[in-house]
Amino acid sequence: MSTSIERPTTSVVICCYTMARWEILLDVIESVRAQTMPPQEVIVVVDHNEDLYKRLVAVVDDVTLVESAGPRGLSGARNTGAGMADSDIVAFVDDDAQAAPDWLERLVVFYDDPDVLAVGGRVEPVWESGRPAYFGEELDWIVGCSHRGMPKVASEVRNVIGANMSFRLEVLRQVGGFNLDLGRQGTKPLGCEETEICIRSTMGSPGSRIVYEPAAVVRHHVPANRGTVRYMLARSWSEGISKAQVSEIVGHKRALGPERRYVRSILPRAVAAGIHDWSRDGNLGGLGRAGAIMAVLAFTAAGYLRGRRLSHTSPHPLPSRAALPDAMWREVQ
Fold it and tell me: Which of 29, 38, 96, 17 is nearest to 64 (CA)?
């Protein structure tokens, strides 16, 4: 007699904050509704934008709409969504990242293993004005996407990518949610809240795993202004500051292991390839890619040093259940 394995229930959380992404946001919601394995619920969290919330209420149905109960910023909005969830698994997708039809199904299959705490997928950039010649795929993390050098098959990783990730609800409850001192706040390009929560999750659970499944895809809209050198360097600086904050919380070895491998292995090959293209064909794009990588590395390192100094004067403590209003959390049945 054969028995079927009952798959866990899922909630999908979409956090939004600006009217500027209205049409894209509607497409994201529709992409989640159209999943081959439909979620039990779709929760749309509006981060302190009353006009956007009212417009969504008037236009969108069949989703749970809620205003963020936390402070302004992505971490507070995600905690609000997780607090509203009533499923085994909570998946997060950005408000400008459309999910492939089988996205959720490919994430959830890994939760058959009780040691898997979180699963994330590939984030592919969709460039509004085309990829700039100087913007190599090695730097796609700058625009919140998977970068060259990441696994091509399902693999254990340190952390998932924020635009495409899922967690067991019980894990989010146990660690107190996303750290409110980290993460993007409006257009301020800070981050690393998903890195920090993944590290904390596994620290308390020996033998546990975080999985990256590149076959679980979302396509991330990249506006023209995020392809500029100005944004590239600003984001790099902010990444350095964010990594310094995470290092103070979880330790430098845990916070920077993959980054060290990335700097030692991926970036040197990319610089060499760019210079080779330029010397062979006079390809200025190759020279531009090499120069951009060096500039990004320098700005990220400078941001990290600045963040270390700031962290010594303004520590970033671990979040706790006390930091999250009890009303944000439902008891899991």
Answer: 29
Residue type, 266: I
Q: Which domain holds residue 186?
A: 10-308
Q: What is the pLDDT of residues 63-106, one digit of tens each?
A: 999 999 989 889 999 999 999 999 999 999 999 999 999 999 99
The answer to whether residue 58 sits within a structural domain is yes
Does any domain span residue 5? no
Closest CA to 141 of 64, 213, 226, 205: 226
Q: Is residue 330 part of a domain?
A: no
A 10 A CB-CB count for 145 gives 23
Q: What is the C-alpha separation between 172 and 150, in angstroms, rounded?
A: 25
Tokens 């010649």 correspond to what residue?
A: 133
Residue 264 lies in a domain: yes
**Beta strand pairing status for 155-156 and 209-222?**
antiparallel
CATH at residue 149: 3.90.550.10
DSSP class per residue in 58-124: HH--SSEEEE--SSSSHHHHHHHHHHH--SSEEEEEETTEEEPTTHHHHHHGGGGSTTEEEEEEEEE
Q: What CA–CA distances, in Å, run from 229 to 133, 159, 235, 295, 316? A: 11, 27, 10, 9, 30
Q: Rounded CA gap, 62 and 41, in Å?
A: 9
Q: Which two tokens stand for residue 242?
A: 């964010």
Q: What are the tens digits of pLDDT across the range 84-93?
A: 999 999 999 9
